[in-house]
């Protein structure tokens, strides 16, 4: 029999070589006698020493990989320098071990060639605008190819696109001209809106003035109409009062007296303001008129005056 010490040493060696602890988010590929045997999951795992060996160790975490800068030629034959970053994750440890000799280099090379191909389809100006489209195109090609490599391409981002210095200067001049154009357009639009506002204000003011003048004319017309109506009503009342006086006792004599007085006043006024005297066609008419006036005056004076009623 072997000594106990030798057995203990052999047991310790077997335990040390046969017990494998796999960290979280990691996967170990085990080969038995040179052939694929199993994938060890995170935790405690046992293998047969000297028969099994750990051939590959993979991290299942998401990995960010820089894609080396490269010169790309656009559709309008402009050279630009492009670099990016690729995010991938190992999803199948077996395929990642045996699908490609070096899946990292394969992904990097495929990303570069795909990017050159996609940029060659676009003009220079579009390369700055279509970054999202370029990213999706690269991801689509890589994801299809990386299935056999046990890798999942999560996303691709273009970090920088650098055109030549002459192109940069021309683009800067174009941007400056475009900004000046927008400033001029904005200024002209502001002046146009200002003129529109002024014209609209003047129109509104003119409408208000015309409405005010119209209302003033209506008010004056209504006032004049009311004044004419008041004068007409006063004349009507005066005429009515005169008519009632003529109907009563002594009305004829009073009317004749009034007419005679106005007749005399008219001749007196003509004599005062001019040197022309208007007389009747025959002198006998003058004496007849004077006689008629005097008879009216005497008739009025001869009538007794009715006594006024005494106040209570």
Task: Give the topology, please.
Elements: H1 4-18, E1 19-22, E2 26-32, E3 35-40, E4 43-46, E5 52-59, E6 63-73, E7 79-90, H2 93-98, H3 103-119, H4 124-129, H5 131-145, E8 151-162, H6 165-247, H7 251-273, H8 283-302
Helix pairs in contact: 3-5, 7-8
Descriptive overview:
The chain is of the alpha+beta class. It has helices spanning 4-18, 93-98, 103-119, 124-129, 131-145, 165-247, 251-273, 283-302; strands spanning 19-22, 26-32, 35-40, 43-46, 52-59, 63-73, 79-90, 151-162. It has a three-stranded antiparallel beta sheet with strand order 3-2-5. A three-stranded antiparallel beta sheet has the order 6-7-8. Helix 7 packs across helix 8. Residues 308-312 have low confidence and may be disordered.
Whole-number radius of gyration?
63 Å
How does the helix and strand content classify structurally?
alpha+beta
Shape: rod-shaped
Strand content: 15-25%
Continuous helix count:
8
SSE topology string = HEEEEEEEHHHHEHHH
Low-confidence stretches: 308-312
- Overall pLDDT: 80
Distance between the termini: 175 Å
Spatial order of the strands in the main sheet? Answer: 3-2-5
Q: What does the largest sheet look like? A: 3 strands, antiparallel
In total, the number of strands is 8
Indicate the percent of residues in helices.
55-70%
């Amino acid at each position: 029999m072997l000594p106990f010490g030798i057995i203990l040493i052999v047991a310790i060696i077997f335990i040390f070589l046969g017990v494998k602890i796999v960290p979280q988010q990691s996967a170990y590929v085990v080969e038995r006698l040179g052939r694929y045997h199993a994938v060890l999951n995170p935790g405690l795992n046992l293998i047969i020493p000297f028969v099994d060996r750990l051939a590959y160790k993979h991290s299942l975490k998401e990995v960010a990989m820089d894609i080396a800068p490269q010169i790309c030629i656009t559709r309008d034959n402009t050279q630009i320098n492009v670099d990016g970053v690729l995010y991938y994750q190992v999803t199948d440890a077996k395929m990642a071990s045996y699908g490609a000799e070096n899946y990292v280099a394969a992904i990097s090379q495929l990303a570069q060639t795909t990017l050159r191909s996609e940029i060659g389809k676009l003009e220079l100006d579009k390369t700055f605008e279509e970054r999202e489209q370029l990213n999706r195109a690269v991801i689509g090609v890589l994801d299809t190819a990386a299935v056999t490599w046990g890798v999942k391409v999560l996303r691709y981002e273009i970090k920088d696109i650098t055109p030549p210095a002459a192109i940069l200067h021309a683009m800067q001049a174009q941007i400056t001209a475009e900004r000046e154009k927008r400033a001029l357009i904005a200024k002209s639009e502001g002046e146009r809106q200002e003129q529109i506002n002024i014209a609209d204000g003047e129109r509104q003011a003119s409408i208000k003035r015309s409405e005010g003048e119209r209302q003033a004319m209506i008010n004056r017309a209504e006032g004049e109409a009311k004044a004419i109506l008041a004068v007409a009503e006063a004349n009507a009342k005066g005429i009515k009062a005169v008519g009632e006086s003529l109907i009563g006792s002594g009305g004829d004599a009073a009317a004749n007296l009034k007419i005679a007085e106005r007749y005399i006043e008219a001749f007196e006024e003509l004599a005062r303001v001019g040197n022309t005297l208007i007389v009747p066609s025959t002198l006998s008419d003058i004496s007849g008129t004077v006689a008629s006036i005097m008879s009216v005056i005497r008739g009025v004076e001869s009538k007794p005056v009715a006594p006024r009623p005494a106040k209570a």
